[in-house]
Structures are given as C-alpha cells and as structure tokens.
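Let's practice the habit of predicting before peeking. Look at the sequence and jot down your guess about where helices and strands might fall. Then scroll down.
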Amino acid sequence: MQINIPQLYWGLETLIIEPVFRTGISADIYVIPSRLKQSNYSIALLKYWFIYHFLIAENTNHNPLNICEIGADRGRQLEFINAAVKRGYPEVHFLKWDAFGEDISKPIFRLKGNSRILEKTDANECSTIEQFEDYDVIIYSNTSGGRKDTENVISGLTGRLKNNGILIGINGLARERKSAGVEFTLNTIRDIAKKHKLSVDFLSGGFFRRNGGLIPLQKKRWFRFNLLLGALLPSLSGEIYWVYRK
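Done guessing? Here is the structure:
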C-alpha cells in the first residue's frame, strides 16, 4: 500500500544537475552552491520540481493555464519546465505566464508571447494592480515571512484567483524561519485556509537534510528517504509546500 505522500513517486531525473545544465539552464540563472553540485539529485532544484508537478496536475482541471508567478526572479521555474520537457517529461500547457518580481530575465518570458513582466518587489502590490486579471494558478514563494505577512498577501492574491483556481505557496528553510523568530507551521497554513474559505489540496514539508554532497543522498532511494523525513517532520524540514484551492 502506498503512503499518501505523492512526491515519493515523482520522477527524480529532472533534479539531476548536469543534464539540466546541458539543456540550456546556465549558471547565471541557477546559482547552485558547489557543495550541492556534488549530489546526483539536487536539493537546490527541489522547489521548481514541486511546482512543476503541481502545474502538471492542475492541467487536468484547466488547460491551458493562466499563470501568475510572484517572485519570478530570473525565470528559473520556466527554465526548469523547459528542461523537463526536453528530457521527455510532460509539458505544462499554459496560455500566459505573468511574471512579478525583480531582476527578471525578460527574454525567457517574452518568448512566451502573452506573458507580461511587472518588476515589483512587494507581493501585497501584486493583488491590487489593475492590469492583473484572474488566474488559474498563482505561485507565491514566501522565503521566510511570518504568519501575518503571509496571511495578508494570501488574502489579496486569492482575490485574483478564478473559482477552482489554486495558489501554490512555499515557505523558506526552517533555520531561516527560526532565526527570524517566525512561527510558521502546517497548522498555520490550515488556519489561514479555514479563515479564507480555501481548501488545502497539498501540504507537506520538503526535505530533511540539505547537504546533498553526502554519499547516501546521491542515491535515489536515500534521496526519497530524505523527502519522506521532510514530509513527516515538517517543523524541522527545509521549506514547506502547500496548495490552496479557491
């Protein structure tokens, strides 16, 4: 019987660094520490891996997708998707991908035709910009924000979601949350969902140990064990991932 942790059954090949770089992702887009490059499967790419699989799943509900990415930076997520497709993985079908952030790699988004680029740094601003429309998917990476900041942003962003649309959220490393004095747990995410009448489609910790240079974590089964520990011990894990549905 399978454990209900879907990431344990997703393919890991898109996390292999060298083939990904050979398909066009350059070092100036992905700044990966040398210690993490020693691993066969890169923790540094894990966030993009999670989001990719969320988008593939959402294509069964909306096809093509209208997507807004908050914190799009250099376009790493789109480049990750492009690399996955080149390696034979399913394509994310979308009509437009609007990018919101700073230091955005404009050519990546302009190749997509309908995409718009808004170089802003405050996610609160995103939910009130008039030219924004309603989306099937909003991606929001909140690296170390606390409950109040995150809840305020989510409240605004969900107003830009279509009915049955999803908001993909990521909260940063446990050590970053701890050093910032941030109490952000799975219960926090559930409470926010309840308050704003959202359902929770997915909620999990990410990985347990970040140092991918360790020999055991270079093996597929040990990497999956790392994911399992991250899911089972989210308060100690690196990053928390969730998907809200409106």
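How did you do? The two ends are 31 Å apart (CA to CA).
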